[in-house]
Amino acid sequence: MKKQLLTIGFLLVLFAMSPAQNPPPSNTFDRQVAAVLSRIKTPTFPKKDFQIEHADNFQNAVNQTIVACHKAGGGRVVIPKGEYVCNGPIRMLSNVNLHLSEGTLIRFGTNPADYLPVVKVRWEGTVCTNYSPLIYAHGQKNLAITGNGTLDGQADKFWFAWKKLPNGDDQEKAKTILRKMGETGVPESERVFGAGYKLRPTLLELYDCEGILLDGFTARRSPFWTIHPVFSKNITIRNLKIGHGTTNDDGIDPDSCEDVLIENCRISTDDDPISIKAGRDQDAWKRRGTRNVVVRKCTLQSRIANGFCVGSEMSGGVENIWVDDCTMPNVTLGITLKANLDRGGFVRNVWVRNVTIDSCRQAAIRMQMDYHSYRGGNFPPDFDRISLENIHVRSARDYGWWLVGVPSKPIGLITMRNVAIDRSGKGNKTELTNLRIEH
């Protein structure tokens, strides 16, 4: 198809909205981002180093040194150059900076029993107890993982095959049980998984923490989602390199978090490189959502999924998201908002600008309320006040933009400024959406 510049499909529904509700122009974008960044304080640590010595049990050595550093008032726990096997989780504590020296490689063991006892997590949007993430913290403040070393979850050595073992469908059964517990309000104390189930652990999960810095390291081959802060705030994630894991290997998923900066990251995964989340269905409706997230100067690549997305677990609400100066070399979908009619919640005040999408296999810009796993609820989400500016799409196999609401909940105001689509196979599709084009 010939080059298109801001070509609009038909509008089935168009609402009149006051100027105060409109997404801000570019000059307001910078002012609002500056206000968020002024609240995000990078953790600082005493200038004391606690060196990890080579030991037969690397996991014990690391965790004991973290405890010693924490009790001494904090500092850096330094892992020297070398290759290590960690048979069990690393537990982060307040005022500790776990520093991975250049040339450090930590391979996490692949025996699920090593990640017991169970700990509190949010698994794909529902709170429960499950196998410990490979690196875990709960209720800690002022913590960091820094340095140019590598964390390797070894998903291809075991976790990927786990689903193919006898009773390998236990994960699907467990997911169904967990989601029903969340939907019906089963007390958290009764949502106990782990042994006997196959809910894979995340690589790094920081639960109910404040003052987080993740800087410089490589994370690869995660068993499940890779970087997953939950119910946390004041977060800086920068200069990370994230590689493929197994299925559902999202790169960075802030989940019911507040005041988050993600910058200068290079992410290449099978699933979503960055996905903004806020819990799943009824379990998330009375919990806090995600707000005030800045994503900038990132390269986002996915073999089967989106470049940048919100959802599909967004039931606690997602608002005030700024994405700037990002590149998506090769994705299935580019910029995506996704949910289904079980979700409820809202996505609003999202601004995306200065993004280049080289190639996408479906649509460059996709907003959908009929995402899979619908169980028959009647709780459509609200999508409203989404702004896209200076977006350049070189090639979209199917649609440039594909924006479709549902009759009971049309999509609210979508504003596009200078959105250029060089080639698309099917043009654009817009239904039950209030789309406004500004040149």
TrEMBL record:
Under the heading SMART domains, the entry gives: PbH1
Statement: the UniProt record of this protein carries the keyword Signal: yes
Q: Which UniProt keywords apply?
A: Glycosidase, Hydrolase, Signal
Q: Which InterPro entries match?
A: GH28_Enzymes (IPR051801), Glyco_hydro_28 (IPR000743), PbH1 (IPR006626), Pectin_lyas_fold (IPR012334), Pectin_lyase_fold/virulence (IPR011050)
Signal peptide extent: 1-22
- Give GO terms for biological process: carbohydrate metabolic process
Q: Which domain of life is it from?
A: Bacteria
Q: Among its keywords, does the record have Signal?
A: yes
A GO molecular function held by the record:
polygalacturonase activity
Gene3D superfamilies tied to this protein: Single-stranded right-handed beta-helix, Pectin lyase-like
Q: Which Pfam families match?
A: Glyco_hydro_28
Family in the record: Belongs to the glycosyl hydrolase 28 family.
Q: What name has this protein been given in UniProt?
A: Glycoside hydrolase family 28 protein
